[in-house]
Amino acid sequence: MTNSTVSVSSSPWWTVLLRGLLAIALGILLLASPEFAIGALALILGFFAVIDGVLMIVVALGERKEYSRWVLLLIQGLIAVIIGIVVLFSPVVSAGVASVLLLWLFVIYGVILGLASIVASTERSGSGRTWGIVGGVLTLLFGIVLAVFLIVNPRGVVELSLWIIAIWALISGVVLVIASFRVKSGKIAAF
Length: 191
What we know:
Layout: H1 13-32, H2 34-62, H3 70-89, H4 96-121, H5 126-152, H6 157-184
Helix pairs in contact: 1-2, 1-6, 2-3, 3-4, 4-5, 5-6
């Protein structure tokens, strides 16, 4: 369907708002308490990925009749949930090696999520397309920047990655919050 405006009932605006607020909270927590965050990085990011993935699945299923690329959003959500569950239930989460492995999982998460968001947004028009592409590019850049840091300095990357993840979460969260009100007003469809 070429119509980029989907009714609020089929695309809950609050799911986009909740994703944005969750991302902002993650960013603030990572910046405010890096010592705690290093110890709890796996749990924080695991829960974030699961909740973000579930919300993407809700939107995808709600838009399946109006949005021909809803399957991409569903796949994004499923990948996020799977990565989150792997991170939460990994038996080696507390080991140093797990931190680097965990970060590589989030490189994969960022690249796949970013690319899928960009591709899925090409069907939209106007600001829905713009916001979707901006969010996808930010997430893709997050994955690429994190990968570069992991390659260049794998030992020192954990603390630095907290800053990268925090900045990405804050920017993505703000973009999602703004977009949620555009979804609520009916100007764009949820993404």
